[in-house]
Amino acid sequence: MLKTFTSKASSPDVALELPTGTGKTLTGLLVAEWTRRKRRSRVIYACPTQQLARQVTDAAYREGIDTALLVGRHSDWPTGAHVAYEAAEAIAVTTYSSIFNSNPRLADADLILFDDAHAGEQYVGEAYSVDINRWKSPAEYTAVLDTLAPALDGVFLERLRDSQPDPGIGSDVRMVVPLRQSGLIAKLDGVLGSLRAPHTYRYAMIRAGLASCLVYVAYSGILVRPYVPPTHQNGLLSGARQRVYLSATLGEGGELERAFGRPGILRLQQPDESTAPRYGRRFFVFPEFVEGADTTDLNRAIVAAAGKALILAPRTEAAMSDASALAQPGWPVWGIDQVAESMAPFAKLPHGVCGLAARYDGLDLPGDACRLVALDGVPDQDNLQERFLQSRARAGAALAARVRTRVIQGAGRCTRGPGDTAVVLVLGPDLSRYLTRPEIVAALDSELQAEIRFGRENSQAGTAGDMLSNLHAFLNQDSDESWRAEAEPALTDYRREMTQQAPDGTAALSACVEHEIRAWAAANIGAWDDAARHAHEVARVTGAAGSATKGYRAFWTYLEAAWADQAADQTGDAAGRTAAQGLVRLAETIMGLGSWVRQMAPFPTMQRSALSAIDANAVNAVASVLDSGANQGKVRRRIGEIRAGLAERAPSKYEPALTELGKLVGADASKPPGTGRCDSAWCWGTNSGSR
To answer: What helix, strand, coil percent values describe the chain, rounded to 5?
Structure first.
């Protein structure tokens, strides 16, 4: 890999894919040290977290490589270390936040190396975001919400203002494009500019390009950010001769380019010609698939057998709840406060459970430090932008690689080398089902596919007792030969059968990413015509990929409409504004009835699109029920029963609720007779729609 890299040393952006356990950190340090010595220049080695930065410094010390650890507030950096970096006598080891801030205090570097680059969207995107949590910053949330009120649907706004969330508001996210709401940019600037730290530092990163930002509004918070971070304005980043991105999972759909705002990243991969496990052996267990098992008891028994567990979940509440539920009597239950600096204290515990939220990277528990990692929940909604794209815009194809990477990384926290072995306990039905989907599994490398297939088949085929027996064989391979004799040959055969296949739409997403980056760079400086032109290319390329990228195409078509309308407004181009309105209608057509596009506030001088006949019928039917003077308590009970039924998995409860919902919105609804029929058919006169 080093020889390959040196042959590509002139490329400005290079990504190295190195599987866990193949010396990724050492490779990065050698590249950094080779560059520092050969070019006699400054080199930065950037990590997502301070914890990982300290691990890298320790690894460098063991190899005799001089480093300068520069983490935390710049005013606290050791003078000697800072001087050593500036004199190019040592590699600066720091965090992403030292680079991506409004006033980087590091001298220009010849090379910047990013470790765990697959996590870039989280750490780089966060730097270019103002994220206002309703409960942590209630006054700020209310102030920003009041500013955005004219661009929000009145009913949705009232639900947001309620002191207690109603059952449906928790998952609802709406998008606002301030650019095309009269006077909103100035008002939003006024309220965001008055926020206190830490929001004031984040706002400084996006204030100059506020007109290009999108706003995502939910009951839990408000997020203001550009879709692609304008990193080209960061002199430290763009001024480096070269940027190198290290990761065990780079992806092929342009995710790395979007995360760092850098087009044309050259990827170098290490060939895999061995059939042996590259990064240790994982035994996936799916208690949800064990017929007749009490999953709570089985999960506890699995953790008890392993002796220790790391729990990873998208949210702190879920991680800590799982940790408490899985801990055995007398075991310590830890969270982020106990391991913020290092995982070493947890590694030294004889028994214990540690629950962490959204920490799928940068945690090393090799060997016997911990033999079990439990994963709960599909990590597909890390922030409000992701939640909007996933659940509202149905543009999950653009996030798919990011989500898979989090699962892959999380599953590998306890297998850091080829000799490590660890159990991967898959908690809950959501993640369990996610890891059975062919389009998800086929996108993984062949070894991981084999491990998941082996674990799923064994979970489905046996009893709780069988699972615990297999678990014992796996954990005690030194004394029990059954795993090596029976399981490993099967895993080897599975791996030979598996081929990795990119999901539908991957090629299109990769092909359009340069246009995405250039579109946002143009929007950031108010070059609206250029922004719209590049957005059009994104929509065109993703449109050619068909249904896989339909939601993403609609998202970019709407952005093209907004930017084209702004450009036409500035030049007084009436025809251009008419064309922009046509693009809004096109985005709505792409998404279909009842989409997020209809919920967007109309552009100035535009009229909201008329309701279709079916939508108008449904609205009138619901309004008739609410205005009929009928007992409101009865109506609420009816709606509550429908919601409860739709939340059920059993067809006998779900299907009647779906039919009742159809009747509520004015349809002639019924469950068609016969086997293999749709759950419910809704008909409005001569129009019909199967659900």
So the answer is: 55, 15, 35
Cβ neighbours of 430 (radius 10 Å) = 14
Q: What is the pLDDT of residue 690?
A: 46
**What letter represents residue 342's amino acid?**
S
SS3 letters for 124-176? HHHHCCEEEECCCCHHHHHHHHHHHHHHCCHHHHHHHHCCCCCCCCCCCEEEE
What is d(CA 142, CA 222) in angstroms, rounded to the nearest whole number? Answer: 10
Q: How does DSSP classify residue 117? A: G
Other CB atoms within a 10 A radius of the CB of residue 42 amount to 23
Dihedral angle computed from the Cα positions of residues 236, 239, 244 and 250, in that order, rounded to the nearest 10 degrees: 80
How many CA atoms lie within 13 Å of 633's alpha carbon, on the beta-carbon side? 0
pLDDT at 273 over 70: no
Q: Which amino acid makes up residue 516?
A: E
Q: Is the pLDDT of residue 540 over 70?
A: yes
What is the rounded CA–CA span in Å between residue 144 and residue 133?
11
Which residues fall within 8 angstroms of residue 34, CB to CB, at 6 or more apart? Answer: 2, 6
* Full strand arrangement of the beta sheet holding 214-218: 130-133, 221-225, 214-218, 173-176
528-543 vs 506-524: helix crossing angle, rounded to 10: 170
Paired tokens of 294: 């009490």
Cis peptide before 198 (omega within 30 of 0): yes
295 CB-near residues (< 8 Å, 6+ apart): 287, 288
CA-based R_g, the chain, Å: 27
Return d(Cα 541, Cα 374) in angstroms, integer. Answer: 39
- DSSP-derived pairing of the beta strands 43-47 and 111-114: parallel
Tell me how far apart the alpha carbons of residues 451 and 252 are, in angstroms, rounded to a whole number. Answer: 22
* 102 Cβ contact partners less than 8 Å away, ≥ 6 residues apart: 201, 204, 205
User: How many C-beta atoms surround the C-beta of residue 460 within 10 A?
Assistant: 13
Q: Which residues pair with 223 in a beta bridge?
A: 131, 216
The span from the CA of 363 to the CA of 204, in Å, is: 31
Q: How far apart are the first and last CA of the chain?
A: 52
Tokens standing for 601?
A: 């506030």
For residue range 205-231, what is the model confidence (pLDDT) as tens digits? 999 999 999 999 999 999 999 999 999
- Return the axis-axis angle of helices 550-571 and 506-524, rounded to nearest 10°: 20
- Whether the CB-CB separation of 472 and 479 falls below 8 Å is answered with no
**Cα angle: 263, vertex 269, 275; to 5 degrees:** 150
How far is 255 from 263, CA to CA, in rounded Å?
11
What residue type is 462 in one-letter code?
G
Kind plus residue range of the DSSP H or E element containing 91: strand 91-95
Provide the whole-model pTM.
0.85
Q: How many Cβ atoms sit within 10 Å of the Cβ of residue 656?
A: 17
Distance (Å, whole) CA 67 – CA 44: 10
